Amino acid sequence: MNRKLLLLNFVLVGVAVYAGSQFRAEWRNAREREAAVAKGQPRALPLPPYKPVPADSAVMPGSYQSIADKMLWDRSRNSTVIIETPPPPPPKPMPPLPVYHGMMSLGSAGLTAFFSMTADGAHQSVHIGESIGQFKLISVNSDEIELEWDGQSIRKTVAEMSGHSGAAGVQVAQDNARTEGAPPPAAAPPPVKSGPGDDTAFGFKTCAVNDGNAPGTVIDGYKKNLHTNPFGTNCTWDPVGK
Q1: What is the distance between the alpha carbons of residues 12 and 216, in angstroms, rounded to a whole number?
Q2: CA-closest candidate to residue 100, choices 239, 231, 240, 242
Q3: Which residue among 4, 96, 98, 216 sits deepest, i.e. has the most Cβ atoms within 10 Å of its Cβ?
Q4: Contact 216, 237 (CB under 8 A)
Q5: CA contacts within 13 A on the Cβ side of 50
């Protein structure tokens, strides 16, 4: 019995010595690895390839238009804004044209034309570039008169301006007659005031060549005199004795 116990103890001692030697060997190997790692330089790993981050796309109105079209809280459910433009104002009506009574040239004073706002209105002397009512006199001769109104050029014949009210009425009647298929009525000659007209700033009174009075006729202390110039023939009623 004692011999068995002694053998067992001897075996246990051998196992302990062997385990200790193995443990020591592993410990020494571990220390050597730690020393090698401490002395060595770490190896740099390669960097991954660079990929730029894609930029965000710009926000366009068309991308959220469907949201506005389907907005449940909007009664119209339509993102299209309808802008109502007011209608253009009606064109400005042109006032009646002034009545032309004649013209004369007084040398340095230049060409003077005589107009009135109505057929029976007071005569006014108007030079080129001056205004009569809302109209400006641009040019005048024995055949045609040019006026300016609201930036527009208006050309009329002397006959139309001498009695444009009657001529306008005849024109309307002619247009109506053409519409109804009837022959147009004949134009009536404009009325002409006989005798001396209105006073002027030059001391004489206005005159109409075709007033039915012959040159040299004296009425109310005024004598009818004819004047011929490059623009035609006109007349004045001059005080007798001057």
Answers
A1: 176
A2: 231
A3: 98
A4: no
A5: 1
Alpha carbon separation from 218 to 65, 194, 214 (Å, rounded): 90, 12, 10
Confidence grade of residue 125 (pLDDT, cut at 50, 70, 90): confident
Q: Which amino acid is at 6?
A: L
Q: Which residues contact 242 (CB under 8 A, 6 or more apart)?
A: 203
Q: Does residue 161 contact residue 145 with C-beta atoms inside 8 Å?
A: yes
CA 172/CA 179 separation, integer angstroms: 11
What are phi and psi for residue 188, nearest 5 degrees? -85, 140
Segment holding 153, helix H or strand E: strand 152-157
pLDDT value at residue 164: 44
**pLDDT band, very low/low/confident/very high, at 191 (cuts 50, 70, 90):** low
**Beta carbons within 8 Å of 85's beta carbon, 6+ residues apart:** none
pTM of the model: 0.38
**Cβ atoms 224, 237 nearer than 8 A:** yes
Question: Can you point out the beta strands (E) in 51-140?
Answer: 99-105, 111-116, 124-127, 131-132, 135-140
85 CB-side CA count, 13 A? 3
pLDDT per position as a tens digit, 41-83: 667 788 888 888 888 888 777 777 676 666 666 666 665 677 8
Place of tokens 């007033």: 211
3-state SS, 130-152, equals: CEECCEEEEEECCCEEEEEECCE
Nearest alpha carbon to residue 195 among 162, 135, 227, 235: 235
